[in-house]
Amino acid sequence: MNSSVSTVPITFTIYSSLGLYNFALVICIFVLYVSGVCINLFLVVVICMEPRLHRPMYVLLVNLALSGVMGSSSVCPNIIKHLIANRQETSLEGCLAQVFFTNVYGGCIFCILALMAYDRYVSICKPLLYHSIMTPAKVKLMLMGVYFVLSSSSAVQVYLTSRLRLCRHTVDKLLCDSLVIANLSCTKTTLISVYGLCCAICAIIFPCFLVILSYVHIFIVVLKTSKESQRKALQTCTPHLVTFINFSVASFFGVIYNRLSYEVPKAVNVLTCINFFVIPPLLHPIIYGIKMKEIRQSINKMMKDKITQVSFRKPHC
């Protein structure tokens, strides 16, 4: 990395143009962010403490929750700091770190959702082979592969981006991404654009294709079963489908916004960022907590046990 470039801070000009909305945004983002982190960690604790939830689907759900916490934590504290501070600046190293974690976040969510769709496919279409296919060792191996590939590809993208010589240092967005930094460079390089496109295909398009393919097979099999079996399959798949559609829509608007960022109002900038980094991590555990019966039962059991423990500890007259 060019040492002269790394010492020049990147300034986010959009914050100064938000004016009176700064305080409202701080409160809104802070409440949504803290709520999302607390709900996700609570879901992780429930699944980890309940032995009957130590199954592939719930292991994947834990990783989905932790990925959501990572994504929102890589963005929200910085946004809140910039909204409060008088100077909205960050170092190039800090910007590149944000690029790394946001890239891993987006890829992790899509890849884990693809693994969850595959889990549903095996459970519904090949129930007799489920325990031999979706073993704990295989699930851990698939998750390790996802994290390794995404971390490696994102690290390479950050490295290529860090080699650029920047001629401008002002950004009219809420956060950093590789496209933002590439637009600040003195020369346009096709290598980073092509590599970024390949990463997007591997981390977004391919997992989405696997999700759609899994559900095509699921619906074909389910339509041949009884009404009761169809109801159970729909009940099992609904949380995942809602989560996948929610995150896909948020990602779609995020990609469109990146390409049209200079032609849309500032409010769209804020809403797009919140819609991708704050809302999905908040909604996903709520969707699963409401829709999945076993999680609801486990939460109720934990609360009853806690109340029972407290009542026994109270001194009796």
Notes on the structure:
There is one protein chain. With 317 residues, the chain is mainly alpha-helical. The protein has a single domain (3-297), classed as Rhopdopsin 7-helix transmembrane proteins. Helix content is 77%, strand content 2%. It is built from 13 helices and three strands, in the order H-E-H-H-H-E-H-H-H-E-H-H-H-H-H-H. The chain has helices at residues 3-6, 21-49, 56-73, 76-84, 92-125, 130-133, 136-162, 178-184, 190-222, 227-259, 266-277, 279-291, 293-313, and strands at 10-12, 89-90, 170-171. Strands 2-1-3 form a three-stranded mixed sheet. Helix 2 runs parallel beside helix 12, helix 3 runs antiparallel to helix 12 (279-291) and helix 5 packs antiparallel against helix 7 (136-162). The radius of gyration is 22 Å and the shape is globular. 33% of the residues are buried.
